[in-house]
Structures are given as structure tokens and as C-alpha cells.
Amino acid sequence: MTTASMGLIGVGTMGSALALNIAENGHDIALYNLDPSTIDDLISGAGDLAPRLTKTESVEALVAAMPTPRAIVLLVPAGGPVEASIDALLPHLTPGDTIIDGGNSDFRDTMRRTERVEAAGFQYLGVGVSGGEEGARHGPSMMVGGSKASWEPLRPVLEAIAAKFEGDPCVAHLGPDGAGHFVKTVHNGIEYADMQMIAEVYGLLRDGEGRKPSEIAPLFHCWNEGTLQSYLIEITGKVLDGVDPETGKPMIDLIVDQAGQKGTGRWTVIEAIRMGQSASVIEAAVGARVLSSERVVRQAASKVLAAPDTTTAIFDEGDLESALMVGRILAYAQGFRILKAASEEFSWDLDYARIAEIWRAGCIIRSALLDDISQAFRSDLPHGRLILADEFASLLETHIGALRRVVAQAVTIGLPVPALSSAVSWYDEVRQARGTADMIQGQRDFFGAHGFRRLDKEGDFHGPW
Ligand SMILES: NC(=O)C1=CN([C@@H]2O[C@H](COP(=O)(O)OP(=O)(O)OC[C@H]3O[C@@H](n4cnc5c(N)ncnc54)[C@H](OP(=O)(O)O)[C@@H]3O)[C@@H](O)[C@H]2O)C=CC1
Ligand SMILES: O=C(CO)[C@H](O)[C@H](O)COP(=O)(O)O
């Protein structure tokens, strides 16, 4: 199999780091960026790797600088920039060339682009790359979508640059066209949920107990040594430790409380709802970012809307740790349920155990839990549901009481815990053998003659109203 030569468009945060990773793994790489000075900066700081990096001044020159077959990675913002890069590349490619979109593209765009590029006679891979700048530089987790014929020739280089979990490369071909970007989108949905629950616990300690960042950080450092061990818990402790060099104050106290978002969390929720799936914890996290942006309204409301009489409490640290544990399990469970629905809808045949495996290192949601999740998916899961696997059902049984106590305490003192409270509500909904949708059906039949099914006989019925 001929090894493809490597090229990259978009020498920004991710592109620069991935280019160095590719070079470090023994490949020459041609680079193009709208602002060429970025490439100069990259090359001048690349040390021993500099000879492997070639600056080009146009997309045409990039293609011309690469021996065939070519593999050209796009690391540009999702949407128009990806489209524009493909437009610019197509006239110059030759058969056997592959375009790899490594950004956070909407999987529907990736499906359409795959069709377009393949119709033009070339190959296309939509690759979700996770791990941020550090991951891209030293080993990201990569979720690949596209044809097997496009994947196989690039597999060695992608495996070489990927993060390794006990020697296993955190990259996998997950399905055709948009499958990789869909899995990355759901990865980010879970990321939003985990981040939000952590932020909520930080808020309970800051506003409920009045602790300073330096009094909260040690808790996260300690939790990172136990069952909560994960990248997000680790960096939370480090963020809390950060001191602003200008003022000497804790950095976190100076950061405006408005969260950015580029779309992947929202897309997860949109797709979940479209496929009839409940993703309440992820939805709560997206909603919280939206409300965070309404800072002026929140500040006005804080003066008008009544707070409870008691606004402080002491939280049990073990309960907080357990609450985060349960919330994380339930967020993963929702994410994997969305993946299952999409796999069925698009006939992707996603391998959930492998997805959990490639999330064990390199990516933002990597956590100690993922090894257990992959093992659970390798066994015969009752109803295909993670939360019904023996190990997870028993973990939930052990820790759910803590989540209840934390949420109850937070609600009593008026502190918002939208994701944690969604988690406990979802848990209770899922375990409710007889739910309350009988009332919804009665109401629907009352106002719209929609009919309902009965427990005691077959058929469609109307009520006596
Ligand atoms: N940052 C992260 O942690 C992660 C980001 N991603 C995704 O990777 C992609 C790149 O992100 P990131 O590196 O952070 O972004 P940056 O903003 O750091 O870099 C974007 C790059 O794209 C180039 N660019 C912008 N617009 C165009 C255009 N119209 N045509 C061609 N090139 C363009 C920029 O060029 P110039 O320098 O001239 O402006 C720059 O090189 C995004 O899809 C992002 O969502 C995925 C995982 C993690
Ligand atoms: O993909 C990522 C991490 O996995 C990127 O950092 C992404 O930008 C995060 O999403 P958002 O900007 O919406 O918080």
C-alpha cells in the first residue's frame, strides 16, 4: 500500500499541534494557512522537526508540493471554512487523494461532503479529533467516519499519532461518512454535561459554603486520585489553583461567568430529540451555557427575585464526590443511548465498546470509568442499557442517595444544579415501572380523541369523558 503524503490547511491551535505530531511521527507535511505568518512562527519554533514542515502560499501550491497520493487534513472552523477549503482543493486533486476534515463539523455536512468529494473522484474522511491542543500535539483520540477504502491507507499514520491506552491506539474507523463526526458530537455533549456538573459542585462550595478557590482545589486534586479520576476533574483542580500574575488574585475569580459554545453540545440535543431520545443531563448543560450568557438579566433578577431564607449549607464532601460519579454515569448512559439511536437510524453498526475504548486516553472526557464502560458493552447488556449492567446498577445503588441529598440541599438553599437535578430525575424516570404517561394519554384523548391502549385488553380505546 502506498503511503500518502501529508498536507494540512488551517495552522491554528489544533492544526499547529497536529502538524508537529505528524512530523514527529516521521512524516513530512506541507502547510497552508490564510495568514502565512502563522506557518513561519510554527516552523521557527519547531526545532528538530522544522525540516519536515513545508510552508506553501496557496492551496494550489500546497497540492503541488505533495507527492501523490495525498492526504490533506483540514483544521479550520466548521461550516463555511470547510466548504471553502474543499472548493479550493477539488480542482487540483488527482485520483487516490483524500481530504480529512479533522474539525468539529456537523455530521450532516460531512455526509453531504463525502458524497460530493467521492462523486468528484476522491476520498473523504470526517474525523472527530479530541484532546485539545495538548492532545493534538502528543496524541488525540480520533473518531473516524468514511469508507473503509479511505481509512485503511491512512490507518498507520492515524494510529501512530493517536493517544495510546496501554499501547492501544485511541483511533477507530466507526462507520461511513458522518459516523465519526456524530460520535465526536456526542462526545462533546457528554463533555458539556460533565463540565456543567463539576461547575455546579464548584458553585455549591463557593456560594453555599463560601469557600475560596484555594479551599476547593484540594478536593478536586483528591477526587482525581479516586473513582472520579479523569481529565476534567484534574484540570478543574488546576484551574482553581491558577493565580493571575497581574493582580495576584485567583484567576477563576476574574473570569466572566458566561460560557462560550461552538455548537456540538446543542447539536447533540437537537439530534437526540429528533431521534426521540431523552438527553436531559446534556440538555441541562447546554441550557445552562445559554442562561450564563444572559448575565445582565441574571444580575437584574438577583435583585428582584426572592431567594430562600437560608442560602448557605455545609455539604458532605463524600456526597459531592458520589453525586459527580452518578451524574457522570448517567450522562455517559444518555450519550451512548443517542449513539445507539443514530446507529440504528443510519445503519452504522457502531461498536460502543470500541468507542468507549478510544475515549480512554487522549480525549477531553477520558476517565477511569470508560474502561468499565467498554467492558460492560462487551458483555450482554440487559436491553442494551449501560445502567442495567450489574456493575453500573450496583454503583448507582451505592451512590444515588448522595446525589439526592446534594440536589435536595442545593434546591433548599436556592443554588442552581440543573444538570445534577436532571440526572436524578432521569434516574427516577427510568426506574419507574409504572410512569405517569397514563395521564398524558387521558388528557390527549380528552381534548383530541387521540385514543389510548389499556392494560387489561388489546385494542385502541376512548375514555368516558
Ligand atoms: N481548540 C480545540 O480544543 C479543539 C478544536 N476542534 C475543532 O478544530 C477546528 C479548528 O479549531 P482551532 O484550531 O481551535 O481553531 P483556530 O481558530 O485556532 O484555528 C482556525 C484555523 O482555521 C483557519 N481559517 C479560518 N477561517 C478559514 C477559512 N475561511 N478558510 C481557510 N482557513 C480558515 C485559521 O486561519 P488564520 O490563522 O489565518 O486565521 C486558523 O488557521 C474547529 O472545527 C474546532 O471546532 C476540535 C477539537 C478540539
Ligand atoms: O471539541 C472540543 C473539545 O472536545 C473543542 O474544544 C470544542 O471547541 C469544545 O466545544 P465548545 O467550544 O462548544 O465548548
From TrEMBL:
Molecular-function GO terms, alphabetical: phosphogluconate dehydrogenase (decarboxylating) activity
Keyword Nuclease: no
Entry-linked PROSITE patterns: 6PGD
SUPFAM superfamilies given in the database record: 6-phosphogluconate dehydrogenase C-terminal domain-like, NAD(P)-binding Rossmann-fold domains
Keywords for the protein's UniProt record, in alphabetical order: Gluconate utilization, NADP, Oxidoreductase, Pentose shunt
Pfam families per UniProt: 6PGD, NAD_binding_2
Broad EC category: oxidoreductase
EC number in record: 1.1.1.44
Catalysed conversion reaction: 6-phospho-D-gluconate + NADP(+) = D-ribulose 5-phosphate + CO2 + NADPH
UniProt pathway annotation: Carbohydrate degradation; pentose phosphate pathway; D-ribulose 5-phosphate from D-glucose 6-phosphate (oxidative stage): step 3/3
Gene3D superfamilies with a match to the protein in the record: 6-Phosphogluconate Dehydrogenase, domain 3, N-(1-d-carboxylethyl)-l-norvaline Dehydrogenase, domain 2, NAD(P)-binding Rossmann-like Domain
InterPro entries named among the record's database cross-references: 6-PGluconate_DH-like_C_sf, 6PGD_dom2, 6PGDH_C, 6PGDH_Gnd/GntZ, 6PGDH_NADP-bd, 6PGdom_BS, NAD(P)-bd_dom_sf, Pgluconate_DH
Domain 6-phosphogluconate dehydrogenase C-terminal: 180-465
Function: Catalyzes the oxidative decarboxylation of 6-phosphogluconate to ribulose 5-phosphate and CO(2), with concomitant reduction of NADP to NADPH.
Assigned protein family: Belongs to the 6-phosphogluconate dehydrogenase family.
Subunit structure: Homodimer.
Protein name, UniProt field: 6-phosphogluconate dehydrogenase, decarboxylating
Organism, scientific name: Cognatishimia coralii
